[in-house]
Amino acid sequence: MEDEPKADDSQQEQQRIMAIHAVKSFVLALMILVVASVLLIVLVLTKQDPKKKQEIELVNSVRVIRIVRGSHQVRIQTQGAVRSLHEVQLAAEVNGRVESKSDALVAGAVVAKGQVLLELDATNYRAAAARAASSVAEAEVVLEQEKAMARQAAIDWEKLGRGEASDLALRKPQLEAAEKRLESVKQELKRAKKDVERCSIRAPFDARVRMAMVEVGAVLAPGTPVAELYSTTELEVKLPFTLLDYGFIKDAKGAELTLTAAVGGEQKTWPAVLDRVDGEVQRSTLSAHGRAIVKANKAGELPPVGLFVEAVVPGKTLEDVVVLPRSSVRGGNQVWVERGGKLVSLPITILRASEHEMVVRAEFEPEDRLVLTRLAAPMPGMKVEAISEDSEDKAYE
Fold first, then answer.
1. How far is Cα 87 from Cα 155, in angstroms, rounded to an integer?
2. Is the pLDDT score of 214 beyond 80?
3. Cα(first)–Cα(last) distance of the chain, in Å?
């Protein structure tokens, strides 16, 4: 019985010890929680605001030029071949065998107006002319006889005094027939002489021979071509214009222009005058043509026929326009301008475009400067730093 109280005391002691440990653990946890809370409150109260990073705004540098409104004369570039104003293909007008040929009747030779190039056998035509001359002489004799007989008939009728004489009695029909006969044979003689002249084929004007087509001994029929000639002193150039150019050039008759071509490694020029512009548009090429008369240059030289030349033709003058470098146009009909340090996009109306420039109209403001730099992602309102490229403050013109 004495062992049971001892067991109870030991069990109570263990429970007391366990309670003390539990209290200590609770107190320790509570102290840790209080300390942590105090530390958190201290940290919150003593916390400093973080330093804000300074934002750096990027500003693109762009090249700009001034924009100048004004007038602009359209200058149209075109090209064409020099050709002669007078070209002819000589042909035989009568039958005949070629008896002689001029030494000048060779391709490239120069011949003078009236120079004999070919001689045909004219024997038959001279004989015909002689017969016609004989017929004229006979007709003249007959006419004189008829005149004498008519005078005598008038005298005889007057002596008879039998009233008014008839035309037949006064030989008027016979006289008229004799006169017509004489006129007829004179025409025959004229034609025969002309045939004799036609046996000599001559140059109709000062010219150069392009081609000779016959030789001595050839028998020619009327219409047989014998040579091609062209004038080297009266020249023109046929200049094509596109439909766009045609609108600027059609009223430019009389405009002075300069023709240029490389000849023998040397650049040569010749003055010319726009003589006329065709009023018809060719449907096949959708183009029109102007024709310029070529003048001799200061050295007194004319370009050779067939030479390909370039020309700049002055056209109409456009008012209140701006000339821009073609590289500044974006998207076909838009430009960027710098206005007050910011980018502004403006639509443009293109009036004329060439290889390096465009003539446009747009709502530019006085302080606007054209942006030349191509930005990767330009946005309206973007800040930019303008770097002027005007040479001595001279705008692009």
1. 64
2. yes
3. 130
